[in-house]
Automatic annotation (TrEMBL):
Keyword terms of this UniProt record: Cell membrane, Membrane, Transmembrane, Transmembrane helix
Protein name in UniProt: MFS transporter
Subcellular location: Cell inner membrane
InterPro entries: Lfuc_symporter_FucP, MFS, MFS_trans_sf, MFS_TsgA-like
One MF term in the entry's GO annotations: fucose:proton symporter activity
TM helices/strands, residue ranges: 53-73, 80-99, 105-122, 143-166, 197-215, 250-268, 288-307, 314-331, 337-359, 371-391, 397-416
Database matches in Gene3D superfamilies: MFS general substrate transporter like domains
Major localization class: membrane
GO cellular component, one term: plasma membrane
Domain of life: Bacteria
Bilayer disposition of the protein: Multi-pass membrane protein
Organism of origin: Marinobacterium nitratireducens
Alphabetized SUPFAM superfamilies for the sequence: MFS general substrate transporter
Taxonomic classification: Bacteria, Pseudomonadati, Pseudomonadota, Gammaproteobacteria, Oceanospirillales
PANTHER family: L-FUCOSE-PROTON SYMPORTER (PTHR43702:SF11)
Length: 434
């Protein structure tokens, strides 16, 4: 370590703190969105598959905008990417106001798409930004620490969704709504959609404040490199190297199924609890809040454990445990099954940043586009809830959790793959005994 290292570290503290607010911000957005599947299903009287288009629009935007974000980061800087993402996210959140006035499901999906487009750019930029802020040796652990503030935002998002949205839903059932006069039904829907709009417009204001704070700071990690002109970005060669890297390629697949499993679990928690315990949306939402509290506590605990246990070993073990918990809750759709569902969030806590950090190891100048691929893998959050929604429509909420169970098995396989690759590397590096 040279003499400049402590000084550089001190200079990065305030930027690091500001970046952690971004991690919290997209946690708020994602977990205010999860209850919207059930909310829109009730307001617009739709099937589980139709209402799951909320997640398709949200996570589909992550897929579409990750690669453009990589171009922004490579040509300009991580800071430019962060500011661009925050700006788009604020615009999307503000669009909830005209959507609530139009009372059209498609307008809400468009607003969600723009919001998530901004968050995709933000996440593609912020994650490798944190990795570039310090030594390579503890990059995965540093990213886990920064990501630990994401569940802080997740808990705030669930709280806002439960207190400001779910509690404002009219208790009228789909049959009762169908029997209402058009004017009466329209008045109820208008009040419910206004409740959806308020927390999103408030979040837009917070995002704009974060944008101004970051814009005023000079931030450039010493390990970050940009190109002089967009024509100097050799996309074909970069993608070729990434596709030939089996470790990275499997990491993208694992991230797809990890995000798919996480989104399925949190999206359909309310529906499972309602079926298992015969309670209303607001009461079922409490268990989603418990899940996110456990997720928060476990994220900090796992960051500490990584100082003693290899990250890939924790990843594999917790993925197997999550699969077992899914099996238990399918077999026991009662209060014990509900608590098994809550416990899955503890297993989820370390998965995203750990897969992210492991997959980016050793990519060098390809890191910015590698990061884009891992964010594009968030498409799993768009696809897998549609699969689970179709299973719910055909077989019920309980059996549908076979979908995240299968996803967790893929993540477990990646953890074991990384452990095996590491053992081979150590064996190759060990001097031969003569």
């Amino acid at each position: 370590m040279n003499n400049k290292t402590p000084m550089v570290f001190r200079e990065m503290i305030l930027p690091f703190i500001l970046l952690t607010t971004c991690f919290a911000a997209w946690g708020v957005a994602a977990n205010m969105t999860d209850p919207l599947v059930k909310v829109f299903s009730k307001i617009f009287t739709m099937s589980a598959l139709e209402s799951a288009l909320v997640q398709f629009a949200y996570y589909g935007a992550y897929f579409c905008l990750a690669l453009p974000a990589a171009f922004i980061n490579r040509r300009f800087s991580y800071k430019t990417g962060v500011l661009t993402g925050l700006g788009f996210a604020a615009l999307g959140a503000l669009m909830f106001y005209p959507a609530s006035q139009a009372m059209t499901y498609g307008y809400f999906l468009a607003a969600l798409f723009i919001l998530a487009a901004g968050l995709s750019i933000l996440e593609t930029s912020a994650n490798p930004f944190v990795i570039a802020m310090g030594p390579v040796g503890n990059a995965t652990r540093r990213l886990n620490f920064a990501q630990a503030f994401n569940p802080v935002g997740c808990n705030i998002g669930v709280f806002l969704g439960a207190s400001l949205i779910l509690t404002q839903l009219n208790p009228a059932t789909a049959v009762e709504r169908a029997a209402m006069a058009p004017a009466e039904l329209s008045a109820i829907q208008s009040a419910e959609l206004d409740a959806v709009m308020v927390p999103y417009v408030g979040m837009a204001c917070v995002l704009l404040l974060i944008w101004m704070a970051i814009a005023m700071m000079r931030i450039r990690p010493s390990r970050e490199k940009v190109v002089a002109h967009s024509r100097d970005i050799k996309l074909g060669a970069t993608l070729g190297r990434l596709l030939r890297n089996r470790h990275y390629r499997f990491g993208v697949v694992a991230q797809f199924f990890n995000v798919g499993a996480q989104t399925c679990v949190w999206t359909f928690t309310i529906q499972y609890v309602m079926d298992a315990l015969s309670v209303n949306e607001a009461r079922a939402g409490d268990y989603l809040q418990y899940s996110l509290i456990l997720f928060l506590i476990a994220r900090f605990a796992m960051t500490w454990l990584m100082g003693y246990i290899r990250a890939s070993k924790l990843l594999a073990g917790l993925s197997v445990l999550a699969t077992a918990l899914c099996g238990y809750m399918i077999a026991s759709p009662d209060i014990s099954g509900v608590w098994a569902l809550v416990a899955i969030s503890g297993c989820l806590s370390l998965m995203f940043p750990t897969i992210y950090g492991i997959a980016l190891q050793g990519l060098g100048e390809d890191t910015k586009f590698g990061a884009a691929g891992l964010v594009m893998a968030i498409l799993g959050g768009a696809i897998m809830p549609l699969v689970q929604g179709a299973v719910i429509d055909g077989y019920g909420a309980t059996l549908s959790f076979i979908v995240p169970a299968a996803c967790f098995l893929v993540v477990a396989r990646y953890g074991y793959f990384d452990l095996k690759a590491e053992r081979k590397a150590h064996s190759a590096a060990r001097p031969a005994v003569v």
